[in-house]
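Q: My labmate handed me this sequence with no annotations at all. I'd like to see what the chain might look like in three dimensions before we decide whether it's worth expressing. Could you predict it?
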Amino acid sequence: RFTDMEYYFTKYEKQYPKGSEIAANKKTMCEAYLAASNEQKHKKEEAAQKRVVEYLTRVKSLCVAPAGIDDDIRTAQRKSVRYGRPNRGFMAYVYDSLTPLGVSFGTINNTKLGMYVTVRANEDFFKGTGYYTTNDDGEFDTDIIHLIQPTGNTRTAHFDGVLGLTKKIAFPLWLYAGGGVNYSVFAIEVDEYNSSGRKTDTEWVKNKDRQLYKPVVEAGAIIDVGGFQVRGGGKMVDFKDIYYSLGVGFSFRRGG
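A: Here is what I predict for the chain of 256 residues:
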């Protein structure tokens, strides 16, 4: 609509350089540009803020600029930069003392909520155990081995799976929060003996009474600058045990 308005105004001004309607036409155009600027300035979009800059700059060239117009232009320029930042995907290594081997991947968006998934485990989670199990009463569910003797050594494997959301607070800071499940299994080390009393093997055996699933929640902050990301936060297992976490990773530009 402004293209047509500008066309007819320019045509009139060329034909009638001292025309009586020039001042009125300029006033009408400025009012139209100001109205359009007011309509666009509340939109959280890069294109809308660029239009605000364009419209207000045109008002300055046509009319006596209203007070504060330069501040409005600078504000729109800052907003166009803010809303023009791309949405990003990320991948990060994450650590806490319970599950030191972790990876988190997801999105950190400019204006909308993002999502992420985190999986973590400790080294014991990746270690094998025997084919049979035990329980809290010290019973073993096998009749093949003649004698099983616990050594006193124990270990607990842990694994976390978390799904959560990210939200930008102010560049370059995002918050994250999520929830999921912590899986843990307790194992004991045993020596195995044959019928003649000779030791044949040493094995790790899972305790099926201590194979547990517990809720886990977490929250923290992400700082992402130039594709490099650091994070810090904490998680709570079973709503009572708290562990602090750290992470480092990278992000990459994505569409949407």
